[in-house]
Every structure is written in C-alpha cells, then in structure tokens.
C-alpha cells in the first residue's frame, strides 16, 4: 500500500469507530429503552455515506437520521421485539408438551419467529423507505423472497454475539458498525439482483 491507500484505510476505520461511538452515545441519550432502536436505524443509514462524507458530515447525518426516525424506529422496534419474545416463549412451551398437535403448533410458531426476525431486520435496513402501509406489504413480500439472505444476516448477528462474548471491547471499537455494513451489503446485493430482473431467471 502507498501512503494515500493507508491514509484512506485509516480514515475509513476512524469513521467506523466514530459512528459506533455515536450509536452508543445516542442509545444512552435515549435511556437505552427508547434510544437503542433509533440509534440502530441511524447507524444503518449513516454507514452508507462513510466513503462520501467527512467525519463532521457523518456526525450531522447521524444526528438528523436519529431525530427524524426516533418515533418510527421505536414503534417498529418494540412492536417486533415484543412479538418475537412472545413467539419465542410460545415455541418453547409448545415443544415441551408431548401431544403431536403442540409439536405442530411449535413448528409453526418457530417459522413465524424466524420470519418476524427477518422482517424486523429488513424494517431497519429500509426504515427510511417505509412511509405508507403498502410499503410494509412490499417489504413483507421482499422478506419472503430474500429469506435465505436474511437467515445469513441473522447468522452473522449470532456469530457477532459469540465473538463479543470472548472480546467485549470489539463492540466498542467499530464492531457494531462493521456488522451493520455487512448486513447492509447483503441486503443491497439482494435488492440489486431483484431490480435488475435476476429473480425472473
């Protein structure tokens, strides 16, 4: 690498760490309960502009995204979280009961849980595009089509949680931003295929 390449590399790393810090700071600002989902949505939005904007511009972009999506992110985040928690315990209880009918219900509940997690993930990846009710309908059908990609994204989140259990500092120094970039990349790759008509093939 030449000096310019190293400079660009460390500039990108610094921006990731900066956005990561902003996500933690704004979560605290919202007392975690009301700050974590807006912080997540702002993180996913701002990460798109890492290469185009300076670090000062990224701070402004993040703050504007955090404020504009504060209510919407909390509504979607908590609604889907509560539904996921309900489906998780419902699945667990059903599989603990012996009659076959409960195993069937448990299987259906587990499938609904996976779909809810995938839909919730896509809600935050495309939060700025969710304006009307029909957008939710379109996102639901996209979630079904892109389910393999969503499962891969959920798997990456699971690996991230395992990683930070061994290296907790990773979550503070850009780990969350890097995970967001990976999930955003996978989503953009899938939507690009959809828009270019590869789904027809």
Would you mind describing this structure in some detail?
The protein has 201 residues and is an all-alpha fold. It has helices at 3-29, 36-46, 55-68, 70-96, 100-125, 133-145, 147-166, 175-195. The mean pLDDT is 86.
Q: Can you summarize the main beta sheet?
A: none
Number of domains: 1
Low-confidence stretches: none
Rg computed from alpha carbons, rounded to a whole number of angstroms: 19 Å
Shape: globular
Task: Estimate the strand proportion.
Answer: under 5%
Write down the secondary-structure element order: HHHHHHHH
Average of per-residue pLDDT values: 86
> Count the strands?
0
End-to-end separation in angstroms reads 40 Å
How many DSSP helices? 8
Helix-strand category: mainly alpha
| Percentage of residues assigned to helices | over 70%
């Amino acid at each position: 690498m030449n000096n310019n390449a190293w400079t660009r590399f460390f500039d990108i790393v610094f921006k990731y760490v900066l956005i990561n810090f902003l996500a933690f700071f704004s979560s605290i600002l919202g007392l975690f309960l009301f700050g974590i989902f807006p912080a997540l949505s702002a993180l996913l939005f701002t990460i798109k502009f890492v290469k185009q904007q300076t670090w000062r511009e990224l701070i402004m972009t993040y703050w504007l995204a955090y404020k504009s999506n504060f209510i919407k992110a909390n509504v979607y985040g908590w609604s889907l979280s509560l539904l996921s928690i309900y489906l998780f315990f419902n699945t667990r209880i059903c599989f603990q009961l012996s009659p076959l009918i409960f195993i069937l219900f448990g299987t259906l509940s587990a499938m609904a849980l996976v779909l809810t997690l995938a839909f919730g993930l896509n809600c935050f990846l495309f939060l700025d595009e969710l304006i009307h009710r029909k957008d939710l309908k379109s996102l639901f059908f996209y979630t079904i089509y892109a389910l393999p990609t969503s499962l891969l994204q959920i798997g990456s989140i699971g690996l991230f949680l395992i990683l930070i259990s061994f290296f907790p500092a990773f979550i503070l120094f850009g780990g969350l931003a890097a995970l967001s970039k990976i999930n955003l990349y996978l989503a953009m790759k899938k939507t690009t295929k959809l828009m270019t008509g590869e789904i027809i093939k």
